[in-house]
Each structure stands twice: as structure tokens, then as C-alpha cells.
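Subject: design request, 671 residues
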């Protein structure tokens, strides 16, 4: 017997029942949190909040709740999230089999809850009954207060373990549940609740459940933030919100209906709202029982199929538009400028995974298909002027697609041919993970950056001339713009269609359609936009970022896009040299080191990057050990899309209002 065989035999002898670990109660959640909430990072942290709020929403869908209050605050155990609703209140009576309060059962046992009883909840976002118990398991501290008139009950938990049995703490005349919790950062990664990310989710919920009021408040900082969400218009209001800063073709087309699935008999309700705008991207949001199914599923397939069939049939009946374009419309033609929300509610939805990102119920596809096709056909028969506007748009999109395809093919050939822009000063390192490229405003600054860089891993691409605002240009014009070609060639991964994200890329790959952007071919894992610290520099940064957002979104999603942060001032005090990135920082440096002798202080305001010596640019802006760079995140694509449309669009007034409303939250501003 050789050494390896002896090792295996020895291991087998010691592998006994004592090696089998049995996880009880909430231990599985604490041991493997990713299985239950997706991750222990910022997304998982927000998922804890959603699980609690979804319980309140389920009460609303059942007809027992119309108000939810979410509050973020600081407390003894760190940040606290509290969720209060005016639903029925979690039951507190003694559970028949567990012989303890039903509240404690729900909070301390997996797969326990009212979601498994159709008499309690006909429709629910909860899938596995692990929602609020998971939150308890991953909380350092949790307090649950239940209002069930005429009494109020409370129980406190630490790391999922009850402090003592449920106790009655007073009288009341209302019903509802208040859940307050502080995450356990010995398991979760230490992050703060992001107010804007949470607000986006709650805004969705208010639109999906018209009539319900959701109040959100952030008390953690000096400035208290408050939002009141209450949408009586339902999905039509949602679509209008998404298109707020865009010119639309017509008012939202909204309809809803119900169908019965036999074997077993279930009622499925479908609500849809559709509107087209004058832009080139597509925004389709799909929901199942209020859960945002970001990866789509059978309801999305049914919607797309019906919309395509309807518009192609309408085109064939139009002599006017058949003369303009006589082929079948492709999916990309129909999706251009489309904003839609599809909401499906049904008992026992089949999701792929606990995070509920994709619907799997096969019968839902046919139900959505028939309802959408029938309602859209009836609408266009009744409103031919709206149909005329839409056929004009989709046929123009088809003609533009053909032109863009030729331009895209030219770009692909240039990229695959290995040719690089003449102005690019490349680095010697070939591993993209170790490489970074600075996209620099102007030849002067580009020249200084080339001299000051570390050529082993830093590449420099100077920009020349005015950048194109891609927000206002058709795709073919963008693809044929010579000033953007060097950026595309330098990054080396191609480009997507307008605003196409990774999910769409994956969907194309699954259907056999060639992807237009390959993240694996990106030549640098740090793409750093380096522009002057003034208004013109900010404009250049915004134009470039808009281009990346609309045509290279996977680059941002991968975390490859950064902003360089050059200093505003060089401050010389005697023989000492300091750099200040803000006005306040300049003042602090002078106050600390000048010792009141202003005559020995020289504060030089940089007018541009090209004004710096190569050593200064390296030390302040390019040296990884001393520089400051800001990574661009895309945690909220929906809100980012609205802001880009507003900031880079035609209408000045919304832009002015946005700046006025958000000025108080700005910590770095140079004008």
C-alpha cells in the first residue's frame, strides 16, 4: 500500500458520526448566509431590509395594510433599520405544536410563516419562509413590537437568540408590527445602509401597490432626509417617472387582466404599462408578487413575443410604412425607446434561486402573451394616431440599425485587427488586471502625463477636440464619430448597443446572437478619466461617462471606470510643499503650518493639468501610493438613467432644479 492509499484509509477510519455537524434553528443562516440572502456585502445588507418590508407589503396585498414607515438611525448596536406597518400584527398566541409564542416561532425557525397557508396569504413575495428569521439570524440585535389591540407585545433577540419570552408591555387600540434591527457585522461585511438604493426599491413598491403609502426617513446624519411615496396612478405613474426627463410619443398604455390556470386551479393577475420615448434605450422592469425579477423569466418572454407580433402585424397592414421598410421588424427595432413595466401576481411562483431573480412558471408566458397582444391590438385600433407615431419610430430604428451594423462591423475589424490609436502611449505590462489607462483631456496634459507616468503599467490616451454628447445622437452617428474611435480601440472590447447591459449581453449569447462587447478583452482594468479640476473638466468627465454608461455599461458594472482627482492648489510654506484638493483643505493647511505668517505662504491655483510639472502630476494624480481616485459605481441603474437623461438632455429647467435640490449634499464642488 503506497503513502496516498494509507492516508485515505486513515482518513476513512476517523470519518465517523462525530464528524457530522448538525445545524439547528438559525445556525444554518449564520453558517452559510450567502445561501439565504445572496451575499454578505452591501446587496445582502439591503436584502435584509427588503425581507422585512416585503412582509409588510404582503399584508398590504392581502388587504390589511396601507401604511409603512421605514427609518434609518444610529443606536447602541450601530446603525438601526426600523420598519413599522399597520397590518394585522404577527400572531403572538401559543403555537399548537411548538408550545411557544407564534412570534418566537416565526423569528427563530426557518420555513415557518403564514406564506405556506393560502388562507393567510393568497399571493406573497415570500418563497421559502426564511425572510424575517434570516434577518434575525444575521442581526446583532433585533426588537419586534406587535400591536394587536387591545395589547402590545415585545420580544428582543441577540444574534437570533431571544433575550426572554414574549411579554405584554401595554395597551393599544391599533394593529401592526414594528421590527427594529442592527446587522451583525461579525458575519456581514461592514457597510452602511444606502438611502438612495433603499428608496429606489420602496418607490417601486409604491407604484406596484397603488394606494399604499411608504414613508422613508434617514436620521443618521446632521441633515435628516425624508421621502413620502404614494402613487395612486400605479404602473402608469411608474412609467411616467422613468420617462420624466424624456420626450414621449404618447401617454402610457396601461391595462390589466386575470386568467385561471387549471391543474391546480390558480388565478394569475397581470398588469402592464407601456410608453415610448425619443431615446434609443429600452427599459423593461418585470415583477412577480412585487419582487423585481431582474433576470426576467417567462412573463418577460410572453411580453416581448406579444409586442413583436402586434407591431409586425400592424406594420404589414400599413401601406405607408411598408413603402418605407418592408422587412420584419427585429427585437432591437421594437425595443428602441421602449419603457415598460410588467407586474404579475400569482400563488406559488416558481423562481430560480432564493434571490428570486427569474420566473420559471411556464403557463405565465402564454397568459402574458395573450393579454398583451389583445389589449395592444385593441388600443391601436382605437388610437391610430399613436400607432402612426410608433410605426414611424420603429421603422426609423430598423433603417438606423442597418446603418449602425455597418459602422459596428468597421469598429470590430479595427479592434480585432490589433491596431491601436496613434496617440496612445501604451504600457509594457500585458496583464490587464495590472494595467491602467489614463484618458486625458488635451494634448498638453497628455504630453505631461506621458512624461510623468510609469510606462510599465500606465498607458496614456490624450483626447482632442470636443466630445460628442451621445445622449443627443443616434447610434449610427455615435459609431461613426472619429473622436470616439480611439477610446473604443484603446479599451479593446468593442461596444454594446445603446445602454445594453450585461444581462442583455448574456441573453444574446444564450440565443446564439453575437455579443457586441466582450469584457474579457478589456485591455486595462483601470480606465481613469483625467480632466482639469474645473467646470470644463467636469463637462469632459460627464461626456465620457455618458458614453461609457450608454455604450460600455459592463465596463462600469465590472468596476473598471475611475475618475482621477487632481489637486486644486499647490501650497508652498517655507521649504514645505502641500497639495489641496478642496478650498477647505487649503485653509486647513495654511492655518496649521503657516503659524500666522502669511508672508511666507504661496498658494498656486492650478488652471489645468498641462500646467503641472511631470513630477507634480505623478506625485498628486498618478502615483498609486499617493493619488486619490474615485471608482464609478452603478448600484442603481434606474436612477442613473434618469439623471443622465436629465443632465445631458435638451431641457434646462430640470437640470437647474436638480442642482438646487442637491447642492446641500455636495461636499466637493469647484466652479
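Subject: RE: design request

Done. Sequence follows.
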Amino acid at each position: 500500500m503506497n503513502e496516498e492509499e494509507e492516508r485515505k484509509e486513515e482518513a476513512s477510519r476517523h470519518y465517523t458520526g462525530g464528524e457530522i455537524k448538525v445545524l439547528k434553528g438559525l445556525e444554518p443562516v449564520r453558517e452559510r448566509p450567502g445561501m439565504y440572502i445572496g451575499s454578505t456585502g452591501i446587496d445582502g445588507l439591503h436584502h435584509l431590509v427588503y425581507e422585512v418590508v416585503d412582509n409588510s407589503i404582503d399584508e398590504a396585498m392581502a388587504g390589511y395594510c396601507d401604511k409603512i414607515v421605514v427609518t434609518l438611525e444610529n443606536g447602541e448596536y450601530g446603525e438601526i433599520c426600523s420598519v413599522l406597518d399597520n397590518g394585522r400584527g404577527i400572531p403572538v398566541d401559543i403555537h399548537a405544536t411548538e408550545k411557544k409564542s407564534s412570534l418566537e416561532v416565526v423569528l427563530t425557525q426557518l420555513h415557518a410563516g403564514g406564506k405556506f397557508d393560502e388562507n393567510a396569504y393568497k399571493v406573497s413575495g415570500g418563497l421559502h419562509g426564511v425572510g424575517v428569521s434570516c434577518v434575525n439570524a444575521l442581526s446583532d440585535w433585533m426588537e419586534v413590537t406587535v400591536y394587536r389591540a387591545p395589547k402590545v407585545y415585545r420580544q428582543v433577540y441577540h444574534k437570533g437568540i431571544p433575550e426572554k419570552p414574549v411579554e405584554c408591555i401595554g395597551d393599544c387600540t391599533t394593529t401592526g408590527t414594528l421590527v427594529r434591527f442592527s446587522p451583525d457585522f461579525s458575519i456581514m461585511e461592514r457597510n452602511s445602509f444606502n438611502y438612495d438604493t433603499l428608496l429606489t426599491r420602496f418607490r417601486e413598491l409604491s407604484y406596484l401597490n397603488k394606494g399604499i403609502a411608504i414613508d422613508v426617513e434617514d436620521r443618521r446624519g446632521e441633515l435628516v432626509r425624508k421621502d413620502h411615496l404614494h402613487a395612486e396612478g400605479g404602473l402608469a405613474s411608474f412609467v411616467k417617472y422613468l420617462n420624466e426627463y424624456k420626450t414621449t410619443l404618447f401617454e402610457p398604455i396601461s391595462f390589466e387582466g386575470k386568467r385561471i390556470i387549471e391543474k391546480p386551479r390558480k388565478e394569475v393577475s397581470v398588469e402592464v404599462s407601456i410608453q415610448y420615448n425619443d431615446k434609443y434605450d429600452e427599459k423593461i422592469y418585470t415583477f412577480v408578487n412585487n419582487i423585481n425579477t431582474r433576470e426576467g423569466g417567462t412573463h418577460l418572454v410572453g411580453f416581448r413575443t406579444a409586442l413583436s407580433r402586434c407591431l409586425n402585424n400592424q406594420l404589414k397592414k400599413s401601406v405607408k410604412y411598408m413603402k418605407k421598410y418592408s422587412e420584419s421588424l427585429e427585437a432591437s427595432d421594437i425595443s428602441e425607446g421602449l419603457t415598460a413595466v410588467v407586474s404579475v401576481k400569482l400563488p406559488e411562483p416558481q423562481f430560480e434561486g432564493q434571490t428570486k431573480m427569474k420566473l420559471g412558471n411556464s403557463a405565465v408566458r402564454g397568459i402574458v402573451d395573450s393579454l398583451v397582444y389583445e389589449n395592444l391590438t385593441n388600443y391601436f385600433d382605437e388610437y391610430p394616431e399613436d400607432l402612426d407615431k410608433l410605426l414611424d419610430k420603429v421603422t426609423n430604428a430598423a433603417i438606423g440599425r442597418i446603418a449602425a451594423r455597418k459602422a459596428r462591423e468597421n469598429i470590430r475589424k479595427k479592434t480585432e485587427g490589433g491596431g491601436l490609436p496613434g496617440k496612445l502611449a501604451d504600457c509594457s505590462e500585458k496583464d490587464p488586471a495590472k494595467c491602467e489607462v489614463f484618458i486625458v483631456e488635451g494634448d498638453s496634459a497628455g504630453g505631461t502625463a506621458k512624461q510623468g507616468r510609469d510606462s510599465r503599467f500606465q498607458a496614456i490616451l490624450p483626447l482632442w477636440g470636443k466630445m460628442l454628447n451621445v445622449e443627443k445622437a443616434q447610434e449610427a452617428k455615435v459609431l461613426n464619430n472619429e473622436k470616439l474611435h480611439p477610446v473604443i480601440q484603446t479599451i479593446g472590447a468593442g461596444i454594446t448597443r445603446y445602454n445594453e447591459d450585461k444581462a442583455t449581453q448574456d441573453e444574446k449569447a444564450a440565443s446564439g446572437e453575437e455579443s457586441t462587447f466582450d469584457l474579457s478583452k478589456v485591455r486595462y482594468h483601470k480606465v481613469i478619466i483625467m480632466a482639469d479640476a474645473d467646470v470644463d473638466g467636469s463637462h469632459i468627465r460627464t461626456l465620457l461617462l455618458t458614453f461609457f454608461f450608454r455604450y460600455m455599461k459592463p465596463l462600469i458594472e465590472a468596476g473598471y471606470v475611475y475618475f482621477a482627482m487632481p489637486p486644486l492648489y499647490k501650497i508652498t510654506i517655507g521649504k514645505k510643499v502641500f497639495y489641496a484638493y478642496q478650498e477647505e483643505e487649503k485653509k486647513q493647511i495654511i492655518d496649521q503650518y503657516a503659524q500666522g505668517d502669511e508672508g511666507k505662504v504661496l498658494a498656486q491655483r492650478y488652471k489645468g493639468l498641462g500646467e503641472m510639472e511631470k513630477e507634480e502630476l505623478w506625485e498628486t494624480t498618478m502615483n498609486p501610493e499617493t493619488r486619490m481616485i474615485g471608482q464609478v459605481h452603478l448600484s442603481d441603474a434606474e436612477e442613473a438613467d434618469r439623471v443622465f437623461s436629465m443632465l445631458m438632455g435638451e431641457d434646462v429647467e430640470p437640470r437647474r432644479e436638480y442642482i438646487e435640490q442637491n447642492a446641500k449634499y455636495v461636499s466637493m464642488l469647484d466652479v
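Confidence is low (pLDDT under 50) at residues 14-23, 114-121, 662-671.
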